[in-house]
Request: fold
Amino acid sequence: MTMTRTTSFLLLALLLSSGVALAEGPKVDPSLADSVKKFNDSFNKFDSKATAAFWAEEGTLISPAGELGKGRTGVEKVYAHDVEMFLKGTTSTFRIESVRMLSGGFALLDMDHEIQNARMPDGSTGTMKLHTVILAQKKGGGWLWLDARPYAFMKPPPAAK
Reply:
């Protein structure tokens, strides 16, 4: 195995074991992958202030329940409410599905978000699967979230008879 393949394999193994997985294929800026990993770690600690710090000062979050958080303090409140509603006691894994690099140091991320042990809408506990779209901007050696939109896909209607 070449040094490059060994390094790539070790990086992938590290990402998979850390709660952040890369979908096969996308080429992800290492600093962006690192920011997603750190975000995932913070998210799993349920520290709303530390998690909101990943957003730019003017950033926004619309939660899966439709709550809007503007700015870091707004994001902090929305995330804290999500923790109380369905995240407390869970483990989240964010998996980068694709990244579209945009000019000016911006990136559009599509990520799958799997939440183990989530409180489901019917009151049961199970695995919740969301999709999250994030517009990020490179700042220094890291990335800040400008806008984040986690949501669930609707179930398709039953087949027509």
